[in-house]
Write a structure and sequence with these properties.
Helix content: under 10%
CATH topology: Thrombin, subunit H
Largest sheet: 6 strands, antiparallel, barrel
Number of helices: 1
Distance between the termini: 71 Å
Number of domains: 1
Low-confidence stretches: 1-8, 121-127
CATH class: Mainly Beta
CATH architecture: Beta Barrel
Order of helices and strands: EEHEEEE
CATH superfamily: Bacteriophage SPP1 head-tail adaptor protein
Mean pLDDT: 80
Shape: elongated
Strand content: over 45%
Structural class: mainly beta
Number of strands: 6
Length: 127
């Protein structure tokens, strides 16, 4: 009996699997005043994607190279997303550790990410 090894992402996702709104952006911190920092998000792109927690094995191996990977985000191919360094899904920030073009086909991108924290809630802007 031959065992088949199922590679992750060996198939392209079905369109219905891309069911999360993902905001990709590049974070830029700029000093303000004498001791403050102002954060700006550049090159924002919102797309549909799929969020996948990685296996414990992959997570443990990622510790060895000091680039923790907790999730994969799969989206349709867009060249403009390669410059992104963070993603936001449902108020949770993910640091992007790497990106690959699945099967080098120019159809889907897979982002290896580390879950960081929830986005702080904004207060009411009513004066």
């Amino acid at each position: 009996m031959k065992l088949h090894y199922s590679r992750p992402y060996s198939r392209f996702p079905d369109p219905g699997e891309l069911n999360k709104r993902v905001l990709f952006y590049t974070r830029q911190d700029e000093p303000i005043g004498g001791s403050g920092i102002q954060t700006a998000n550049l090159d924002e792109h919102t797309v549909w994607g799929k969020l996948i927690p990685v296996s414990d094995t992959l997570r443990l191996h990622s510790f060895q190279i000091n680039k923790t990977i907790t999730h994969k985000i799969i989206v349709r191919y867009r060249q403009s997303l390669y410059s992104s360094d963070q993603a936001l899904i449902n108020g949770v920030v993910y640091l992007i550790r790497g990106v690959i073009d699945i099967h080098s086909a120019g159809r889907f991108l897979s982002f290896s990410c580390e879950e960081m924290r929830s986005q702080p809630e904004r207060g009411n802007d009513f004066g």
